[in-house]
Amino acid sequence: MRLVLIAMICLGSAIATGLASALPASAQQTPARPAAEQPALMQFPGSGWWLAPPPGFTQTSPHWPVLRHRSGAHIALVDFAKQPLTRANFGAIGALTAAGTHDEGRLESVEAVVAGGRPAFLATARLTQQKALAYSLIVEGARQNVGVTLTVPDAATDIDLTSIRAALLSVTDRIADAPALPVSVPDPDPASVRFPGTSWSIVPPAAFALDETAPAMIRHPNGAAIMLIEQPKERIDAQEFKIGTGLHEGTRNESRVEHVESLTVAGRPAALIRTRMTRRALLAYLMVVEGDGGNVMALMYVPDAAAHPDAAAIRASLLSVTETRRSPEQRLGDLPFRLTDLAGMRVVSIVANSIVILTDGPGDLMDVATDQPFAMLSLYPIPPRERFDAKRDLPKMAALVRERYPGATILAQKVEPTPQGPVATVVFTRTPPGKTAAVAGVAWALAQGGSALFLVGQFPPERSDLPARFIKVRNGVRPR
Hints:
The protein is 13% helix and 37% strand. It has 6 helices and 30 strands.
């Protein structure tokens, strides 16, 4: 239920205002799996191209550029004349491909990628005649372009989709004297919107527009909205959701699972879940996609009263999610505030371009890496009539800590004078799910101009030195 928990928390943050939108919950996550060992590169016969084939694929002829798998899956390669690649080379999502032939199908996705350091596009199509899924990679090489097609029959059950994607992106021409090409992706779909603070983009349905006001969302005038949330990389298993299951019963986020589907998005394993939020009269769609640098959850919610978008437009939009790797520095540059002092910590994730999670250590998961410090901070604009007041809002802070961390024990709540102004402080302990030892926590809130700054720190109880590092981060937040 981890994905739904995160989704409903972020949904609640997007709808609520003031304090209720500002204290993020820690994600109940499982550790990311180790990356599989990459096979050695092999040359396609009769070509100047190499790739690292997925497990189980072998060359059946020394003269024919085809690799085969016992399931019937196969990889074929074709060289063609060098030309620049653009999104315009591909049809619209859902368009008919190779009409009237054995390869007839429907285009499901197109993604700008980098393969072997070269600009490339990766497309997927559902082959209706062959009952198979085709992955087509087109790469702009130093001297010529190449097309690599990997076809997987629907009946094949022993092929890892992650290894397929890794194999396709390993394609390289390996020409030592080739002129250098920029290691950057081609222009993406012009209708695609990059969600701020992330490495992910989406083509929203008609009439949606990006609103970067915290928390950032892609909004429709009728109240529908889209949010992209990055998560640590892990296997996606749609089977953890069961149709009819009730979620968050008895709370304002009460909902019921209506639809669960395993699928692929641009060759990446994915799951689509639809839930009905009964107390809010909302329909929520969750598309979870496994990326190269991490996973993403595309969350779209539609009020029951909204006539648009329809189910087909929603599905097409969710299937358009694409990843373009960006550095933490690039993603931090999207924020409406600056972090001038990370106090020796690194960025774990950025949520809705308004919440930043930091840590010091190898783990990314708060409920797993409990021996590490974690800091979650956000800067939210507050309407003039709701200006934050540390003394008045201190009880609300404590109530929100209990809400976000069920079972937490409040040890102290006070208002502290600081050079930055009065700071509401709540000290607490909690025991993460699956753990027997408690972790220490502190939550701070203070006014900063027309905004409210919130920071929640988690640390091992014996490390009384760590709150001072959190304070350095807190005091280093500056508006842009």
